[in-house]
Amino acid sequence: MAPRVKDEYVTMSETGSENGTASSSSPTVSRESSSSDLKAKGKEDTDQAQKFATLQDRAKAPNSLYLSLTLILTAHFCGDIWSTRVVTNWSNSMMDGAIITVDTLKYLRDLTMDALQGNVKNWLEFGQVCVFTGLVASLLYVLLIAPFRAGFWTGSRSTKHKMHRYMGLAYLLQYFMAWAQYLANYESAKDSYLPHAIALNGVIQGYSAFFSFKVLPELEDPGYYSDKAVASRSFVHENIFFSMMAVFGSMYYNDEFRHNLKSHPAGQVVEALFVFFPYIAIRTWFPTTRFSNAGKGRMGRTKKNELFYEIGTKMVKFFYLWAKYFLGFFINFLVYLEAPTESQW
Q1: Alpha carbons 130 and 204: distance in angstroms, whole number
Q2: What's the CA gap between 274 and 277, in Å, rounded?
Q3: CB 161 within 8 A of CB 210
Q4: Cα separations (Å) of 334 from 327, 328, 330, 344?
Q5: How far apart are CA 138 and CA 144, in angstroms?
Q6: CA pair distance 245, 200, nearest whole angstrom
Q7: Alpha-carbon distance 66 to 36, whole Å?
């Protein structure tokens, strides 16, 4: 009885090897799928199913979302934010910022014409207006004009992640108007509700990014300060906590909001959590990335730019520590004790 093809091929290979002949010269004989092939194929199917399940898991709302909603809505309720006066104040601030921008540009145009004609009487005033206009123009270009030119909201890429894109546009518009009002009309800016709208928009942006970019890797390297790395999804999720701190600060530094918050028992609980225990009771609900891991993952930085990014990372770390302990804890403690006087506000 003739041997099976598979057994014949194996026997010939073994014989050739024993006789010193190269068994690799023998042509490979096609055969049916073995049990190992079927197992390998089954493993691939399992891996694909696990990948799909992972994306499904990533689409689930994290517990931090429920915590964020609870704290923010409670603060809103206790602070009596849901009112028409808040919306009116917000719209007035946006209009004020737009008017300041247009008036400043017109004023600079008139001063420039006077300078060309030799009619400038106060060069100090001319220099101050030039500096202020330069700041406003830089903000306008970086925050709005450059992204528009890149097609962030009008190009072919704007068809994807629409909520994240246009909420980002709303954030940048409000941010620009807030700076314009702050630089030119501080008395109105300090009582404006526009900073709270910006901070709230930041929280929405954070969760929008978290759900829109589910394919981002969960890396220890945050990837936020490099020229090749991809931002870690943990870093995106983590920054929602800091946006929540900004939401609380925008309420706590407003006299009316703070008074309403303190007069309600639930508001006092929210106040205590953010003033005394933010990094104990709230921070632990969010992932943590380390400055020491920045730039260490997956060759995320070009070698020639490594020094630049190392210096930049140290500067960001310094700013973070300053913001956490001085702008955060210290200022919050002062406000909690009602130490600032009317003139200091």
Answers
A1: 36
A2: 6
A3: no
A4: 11, 10, 6, 12
A5: 10
A6: 10
A7: 47
d(C-alpha 195, C-alpha 191), whole Å? 10
Q: Give ∠ CA 292-229-246 in degrees, rounded to 5.
A: 65
Measured between alpha carbons, how far is 259 from 247 in angstroms, rounded to an integer? 16
DSSP 293: G
Token pair 């990533």: residue: 58
The reply to whether the predicted model has a pTM over 0.85 is: no
Tokens 């049916």 map to which residue?
32
Instruction: Provide the CA 286 distance to its chain's centre, in angstroms.
Output: 14
The span from the CA of 17 to the CA of 23, in Å, is: 6
Radius of gyration of the chain (CA): 30
Surface-to-core class of residue 78, CB atoms within 10 Å of its CB (0-12 exposed, 13-18 middle, 19+ buried): buried
Could you list the pLDDT tens digit for every one of the 345 residues in the chain?
444 444 443 444 444 444 444 444 444 444 444 455 444 444 444 444 444 446 677 778 889 999 999 999 999 999 888 888 899 999 999 999 999 888 887 877 887 787 778 777 777 877 877 887 788 788 778 878 888 887 777 777 677 788 888 888 899 899 989 988 998 888 888 889 999 999 999 999 999 989 888 888 787 777 766 777 778 888 889 989 999 999 999 989 988 889 999 999 999 999 999 999 999 999 999 988 887 777 665 566 777 777 887 787 888 888 888 888 888 889 899 999 988 877 777
Q: How many CB atoms lie within 10 A of CB 14?
A: 11
